[in-house]
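Case 371 in the screening queue. Each case pairs one protein sequence with one candidate compound; here the compound is pyridoxal-5'-phosphate. For every case the pipeline is the same: read the inputs, emit a complex structure as tokens, and attach any notable structural observations.

Predict complex for case 371.
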Amino acid sequence: MLDAVRLRNARNFSGGPGALPETILQQLHESMLCVPEVGMSVLGISHRSEWFAAVVAEAQRNVRTLLGLPDGYHVLFLQGGATQQFFTFPMAFSRPDGPSPEYLHTGYWSGKALAAAASRHRIEVAWSGKDAGFKVLPRARDLTLSPEAPYFHYISNETVDGVQFQETMGRDDVPRLCDMSSDFLSRPCEAQRYDLIYAHAQKNLGPAGVTIVVIREALMDKVPPGHLPEFMDYRTHAAAHSIYNTPPVFAIYAVMLATRWLRDDVGGLDKMDAINRRKAELLYAAVDGSDGFYRGRADAAYRSIMNVVFNMATPELEKQFLQASAQAGFSGLNGHRSVGGMRASLYNGVTIEAVEALVQFMHDFRKRHCV
Ligand SMILES: *Cc1c(COP(=O)(O)O)cnc(C)c1O
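Case 371 output:
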């Protein structure tokens, strides 16, 4: 029974919540009954305990170490997901009578982010990939961005469309805000060039319920006092070390374990990046080498290391693929409900062996269906 569960967990390619490394699942499993240092279940430990303060402190430190974050930043653990951030930072940083913030529209999630901001303020869409079906991305050198904008926002990896930036976008003289929900801590990023990075945990780093916010103090302090309700103000959570009210203790504990794993077991973000690239190479090679049986969705120059999105000749064949893959123990391979097709998400917790098994399955499936 346990072997079957381990196989299913190992073959989980879900777009989110995503797969977690087995060693972390094991530690979380044990912590349900008893956290060794405390002698009781993680679910019943007070968020005001010394133990939990130490968990938050280590999770923060690990994020700082992994990113090589300089002084002048806060690392916060907030609730409400990435979606809450879509609404919060426009309220914090743009003014109805001031210049418009600029957004890149590169796929499904950046569309959600800009719609959230536009529901209250004027915004400027500096570039849109909509007409190109979100299969391509702009290059930094091709964009003309305003020096007046209160901030510039983009999404580093479009989880649904399978396109990912390989360079830092935006201007260094305008606050740079980025949703890294689906590739945070999967590779190095130039953290010191960002003013606000946010990422929920449930793609690469843990269960749903916590969102990591890395914010430059100077940006936080641009908000006039009293401009936002106290709970919405990033300063409130910075001052309370993310324990203003009851935080999601379990989810933050998981993020602490995941960042410790990245630091100690994986050996940092360069190493994680190399592993993630290897996984993507294997899978894209299987897609590209299939004589059109599998068809990559995104333009090859822009495709994502995290989310490999592909189609087949007919929806009927795709359905057969999904059924057969489920029978073989794979899960989460269906594309996002907005685009259909297939998507294999290669988050940190997915092993090279799992990708090799998927590549083998795809090869066998193709042989069975090509006459
Ligand atoms: C999944 C995803 C979201 C949605 O996040 P919630 O935590 O569900 O609000 C936002 N942005 C990106 C890039 C995502 O991949």
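Case 371 observations:
- DSSP finds eleven helices and twelve strands in the chain.
- The chain has two domains: 26-265, 268-369.
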